[in-house]
Amino acid sequence: MSQCCVSGFKWNGEPEGKVTKLGKNDVYVTGTNNEVAILMVHDVYGWTLPNARLLADHYAKEADATVFLPDFFGGEIVTPKMMEDPKKREAFDLMAFIGRNNKEKRFPEISEFAKALKTEHGFKKLGAIGFCYGGWAVFQLGAKGKNLVDCISTAHPSLLKKEEIDAIGVPVQIMAPEHDQQFTPELKAHANSVIPSLNVEYDYQYFPGLTHGFSIRCDPSDPKQKNGMERAKNAAVAWFAQILHLH
User: Fold this and answer.
1) Where is each Dienelactone hydrolase domain found (predicted)?
2) Strands 172-179 and 202-211
3) CA distance 81 to 23
4) In sequence order, what DSSP letters do the residues of 10-78 get, joined into one string?
5) Are 72 and 47 in contact (CB under 8 A)?
6) N or C, where is the chain less crowded by C-beta within 10 Å?
7) Residue 196, Cβ neighbours under 10 Å: how many?
């Protein structure tokens, strides 16, 4: 993962949901729908990022769902303020952080949380969306035969492998910026070649001129970035509304 994963701007507004605990995980919850849920798998900034919580509020209201944004980093928090300090930014070892939160360690926890939303909490429909670090996780949640989620969405996924793309078994949405060191042109081409052959609904949204992180960590004072952020939010809302409510 690159340092573009640890840059971004804080949005305005105050999150409207609540912080609680489900199983072993602290979680931000927003929304009131008892049948339809969305699981957000966060980026490197984790579950406390105000942007992520504000976006969860949008999904809850506009896609008519209860949205869950859990802590999948075991209480370790990376904040935008840390990254604004050049010394702290330089001292932050991103690869060591990712090593502590690798796929083998974190996916069982993510999988169990998703499973519990249906089996223990009674949700009939469940979508999942992952940003950056969370991108690989939602692809694994949506793999053939796992029956964990009904659809997935991802924006600028990181750490994603071709075999994870090949294994997808549920409707999938990808929101891809033009410039992304993680979701490379090769991976974009692979997804657009393979997924249409897998007999799943596929929505590919391309964002020319934008970069990794645009959908959750853009600068809203930049009209191009703000437009991309809003378009991505609206695309995810429309996707979840279609798959979770109309199917």
Assistant:
1) 32-243
2) parallel
3) 30
4) PPSS---SEEEEETTEEEEEE---SSEEEEEE--TT-TT-HHHHHHHHHHHHHTT-EEEEE--STT---
5) yes
6) C
7) 11
Side chain identity, residue 11: W
Residue 242 to residue 246: CA distance in whole angstroms: 5
Mind listing the pLDDT tens digit for each residue in 201-243?
999 999 999 999 899 887 888 899 989 999 999 999 999 999 9
Cα→Cα distances 122→80, 116, 140, Å = 35, 8, 22
Per-domain boundaries in the chain: 3-246
Please check the confidence at residue 161 and state whether its pLDDT lies above 60.
yes
pTM of this structure? 0.93
The one-letter amino acid at 46 = G
Whole-angstrom distance, CA of residue 108 vs CA of residue 102: 11
* Nearest alpha carbon to residue 240 among 100, 33, 98: 33
Kindly indicate the confidence band of residue 80, based on its pLDDT and cuts at 50, 70 and 90. Answer: confident
Exposed/middle/buried for residue 146 (C-beta within 10 Å: 0-12, 13-18, 19+): middle
The amino acid sitting at 159 is L
DSSP per residue over 105-122, as a string? HHHHHHHHHHHHHHHTT-
Q: What are phi and psi of 48, to 5 degrees?
A: -90, -5
Task: For the domain covering 3-246, report its CATH number.
Answer: 3.40.50.1820
